[in-house]
């Protein structure tokens, strides 16, 4: 599904709390994850920060790129399962959406999804389907880290935006 360019601006507003880049540290992250049921990271830099702070996300979605440039040093951390998917830049495909729906219904430990293409828009279906009590972290380009503590309002907002952006 391609983004409707008339509504792409809706994706630029952070879905949760923005932590400015210079304020992201282990203590700040811990304050958000200490009560979370599952920790999800979207993006290489976001996931890398978590690993450096000693936290392995329950689910991480990466594309081995930084601002669309292939990384020379790939992320290495232990997970129980690695899943490879394809997703074109500026799109979100049904395979990704269905995979997220499936993973969310499972009891799982540590999963890494590696996207061939681009992972940026995968946060939106995570917001649409993740249960309350999960926390999703993603990068806001040139600004910082966004923390989304899942609840009914986030799901509702994500579905409204998804229906406009991908109509």
Textual characterization of the structure:
There is one protein chain. By secondary structure, this protein is of the alpha/beta class. The protein has one domain. The chain has helices at 26-33, 44-52, 94-105, 123-129, 152-165; strands at residues 17-20, 38-42, 59-62, 65-66, 69-70, 81-87, 111-117, 134-140, 144-149. Helix 4 crosses helix 5. The model has no long low-confidence stretch (mean pLDDT 91).
Give the structure's gist in a few sentences.
Helices cover 30% and strands 26% of the residues. The chain is built from five helices and nine strands, in the order E-H-E-H-E-E-E-E-H-E-H-E-E-H. The chain has helices at 26-33, 44-52, 94-105, 123-129, 152-165; strands at residues 17-20, 38-42, 59-62, 65-66, 69-70, 81-87, 111-117, 134-140, 144-149.
């Amino acid at each position: 599904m391609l983004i409707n360019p008339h509504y792409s601006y809706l994706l630029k507003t952070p879905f949760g709390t923005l932590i400015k880049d210079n304020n992201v540290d282990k203590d700040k992250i811990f304050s958000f994850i200490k009560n979370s049921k599952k920790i999800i990271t979207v993006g290489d830099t976001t996931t890398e920060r978590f690993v450096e702070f000693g936290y392995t996300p329950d689910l991480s979605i990466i594309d081995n790129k930084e601002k669309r440039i292939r990384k020379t040093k790939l992320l290495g951390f232990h997970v129980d399962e690695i899943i490879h998917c394809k997703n074109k830049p500026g799109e979100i495909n049904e395979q990704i959406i269905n995979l997220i729906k499936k993973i969310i219904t499972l009891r799982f430990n540590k999963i890494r999804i590696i996207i061939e293409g681009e992972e940026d828009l995968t946060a939106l279906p995570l917001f649409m389907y993740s249960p309350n009590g999960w926390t999703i972290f993603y990068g806001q380009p040139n600004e910082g880290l966004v923390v989304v503590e899942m609840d009914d309002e986030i799901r509702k907002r994500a579905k409204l935006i998804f229906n406009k952006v991908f109509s």
